Amino acid sequence: DKTSVNGTMRYFQDLGLNLENAEIFVPLEIVQAPQLAELSKDSFIEGWKTVGADTIPKQKAYVASQLKQLSVDMALFKRVYRHAFVCSKEPNQKALPLENALVYWEMLFTSPGKPWVTGSGSTTNWTNLWIEFLKKKWTKTVNKDMWNQTFEFFQKTMQDDTLSFWSEDGAWPGVIDDFVAYVKQKRGELPDTMETD
């Protein structure tokens, strides 16, 4: 009823996927895989039936077309991003260990995912800032709310990297508020003395 880790990896290789980047999350979302290295028979059949790809060559072609769209189709990217959390955590856990979340954010927020970078002249690499901030300031796990709110924040910064959309009274989780303070400090918009817990 389900594949083993080896079977899943072999399948990904048959699809011609690079296992080191966001490519692996695309078929996992299509078949609604319960875990990173596990595909269940029913959802596998259902997922591919829905898109009309019943052979490996058709599946390979479909995944390739989705990968071309991944960085430009925000609805597709959001589905893949959200499912990445679902299939990456242990079945009995509600959250991801921070070190795992950092790896997956790096995979998703770089090509062929959607690079989290803004600006043309003075570029802001948000992925690097986010990872650097979390390594320094965050000691907890990453729950679903933090994972999903990070996506909402990512979308906002892609439209407005001045952060004018953010306010202290907003409904952002504390970790995002602290991150905004961290970024503003780095940009010289806040004094260095400001401590965030």
UniProtKB/TrEMBL annotation:
Q: Could you tell me which Gene3D superfamilies the record lists for this protein?
A: Cullin, PONY binding domain, EF-hand
UniProt function note: Neddylation of cullins play an essential role in the regulation of SCF-type complexes activity.
Q: Which organism is it from?
A: Hyaloscypha variabilis (strain UAMH 11265 / GT02V1 / F) (Meliniomyces variabilis)
- Specify the protein name: Defective in cullin neddylation protein
What are the BP-aspect GO terms?
A: protein neddylation
Question: Domain DCUN1: where?
Answer: 1-184
Gene Ontology molecular functions: cullin family protein binding; ubiquitin conjugating enzyme binding; ubiquitin-like protein binding
Which cellular component terms (GO) are annotated to the entry? ubiquitin ligase complex
